[in-house]
Amino acid sequence: MAPSHYPRLVFHGLRTFQLVSSVIVGGIMSFFIWHLTHDHWSTPWTFIWLTSASLFSIAALFFTIILHCFIGLNPRLNIALNGFLAVLWTLSWSLLTYYMSGTLANVCDKAHWHEDTGIMVCRIYKALFTFTLLGFVSTLAALGLDIYVRRQQTRRGVYRLHDLDTKARPEATRGPFTDEVEAHQNGNGYAHGGLQQDDSRESLAWEELRPSIGPYAEQGDKQRMQAGCYAVPEAQFEYDTQYRGGHEERAMR
């Protein structure tokens, strides 16, 4: 599962309420619309809004759970979807409450409905109102959760950038070597503050060789090397490196 900024329990709990309410409202609307169409009655606008709210909610929930599992759910996208669903549920619940207030206020018994079919319809209307209210409230809560997660995500990004900008850096110490390097980086020995070239400094690439004092160097060589003059140690020429042939080597032995 892809990482998510949503709190797992609240996120899935609200989505469960949305899904359950949408499925039940959609099932009740399908039942009513089928009977109205079968008896050649027109479908009320309240039923059309309720059906649209339930079907769009189911489609949006399936789409967003796929994104949540595989690539992560963007809070901005979910704000747009839940905002649209909140408008549908608000209109649907408002129309249902306005037109069915008389039916919802009565008790589902034979004194008011006179037959079993009427009692069943009364109970279905009350179940429809209950789950429409649940869908409306859960969608508003999901929209509020999206806004909260989006603000937290933005706040974390601002804090992270602020920490990067205000992070303390160690101050660089300047010296003759850093000044010389800076002068050469600014363009072949040009000083940083102007265009005056310092001819007294040589390029670092042509720095004078620094010989090491080996075990065969004599005191005079060491003194010359310490004075800054490079010379080959004279002790290296005291060894006999000539070739005299095999018979001379045997005679010497």
Automatic annotation (TrEMBL):
> Which species is this record about?
Friedmanniomyces endolithicus
Task: Output this protein's name.
Answer: MARVEL domain-containing protein
Q: Which domain of life is it from?
A: Eukaryota
The residues that cross the membrane are: 12-34, 46-67, 79-100, 127-149
> What are the protein's UniProt keywords?
Membrane, Transmembrane, Transmembrane helix
